[in-house]
Design a protein that fits this description.
single chain; two-stranded antiparallel ribbon; 15 helices; 1% strand
Amino acid sequence: MTLPETEVFSQVQPSIIATRGPEAWARRQVVKRRLALGGLCVLLAGAMIWGIGAGAVHIAPGEVAALLGQRVGLGEAAVSEPKPTILWSLRVPRVLLAVLVGSALGLGGAVVQSLFRNPLAEPSLIGISGGAAAAVVLFMVLGASLPWLAGLTEYLIPVAAFLGGMAAVIVVYRLATTNMHTHVSTLLLAGIMINALTGAIMSLMIFLADDAQLRSITFWAMGSLGGARWQTLALIAPCIVPGLVILPLMARTLNVMALGETEASHLGVRVQRMKTLMVLLVALGVGGAVAASGIIGFIGLIVPHLLRMAFGPDHQLLLPGSALLGASLLLAADVLARVLAAPMELPIGILTAMVGAPFFIWLLLRDRGRRSFT
């Protein structure tokens, strides 16, 4: 049994310790984790079916199943056009993009909160999303003046997003950390400063942009999955998938680091190397998500909190669960963005902000209430 599990077990009621023992408790935790992750997988599958079928042209679940079966050679689907074309050219790429972006934002939020030991940390609040967005807008406007980049713009946008997000998180981390300790107040102030700076850069680029660039930048900055295509998935998957694969494998390391960085280093964890790798993977994933969908805030804040309140702080459940729940929530937001103002489409960033901002205020009030009793 790992050290974090031992620490958690020591907090269990003595009667449970006496009657069940640590091994039985550990087995219960494994079963609980598997059931929770299984339920989140079912939730994601249902959200994907909903996302594929919902829209201006409704595709029933039976038609979706028939078309998917036809694609894998399980018979012919009696579904008339334009539903097959809409399904494969628009809906499926959009749903897969929502899964990638939502999982990157949810997982990134869980990792950032754990690394900074701050439940209010989130990729957009500490400047990662803003830095990535500013770099993309800068590249979209200034890159258009360089003819030799004309054929490479689509491929270089994810690179620009990664570099911008990485630069932002390095600045925030350096400002907020002294003597191996991250100060929460300084972290939030540094995030506000980075967001203000990146907002100013984006405003300057909007001022310099032509009409076509201005329209695309404005809609993109509010967050949208409307540009989802198979080519988009091919471009951003290499940015997001490595983090989705590697970060959950580092859950035990984060459990140990939760005891304190000094204690973790004494237990053999290479703390700085692990933190650097995690930050790189988060910046890469969030940068890819921003490049594909624009700024979609609060997913990384809401999702880890919901999972902690429901299942506790164990990162072996929190990290993969945040990816699954983040994907499901973004899929739900995307469906609502498509149907609430049909045939128009609302920017997803507006919907997530309308839900996330009150949630953030509630967290601040709850934290203030706890401090008043200490």
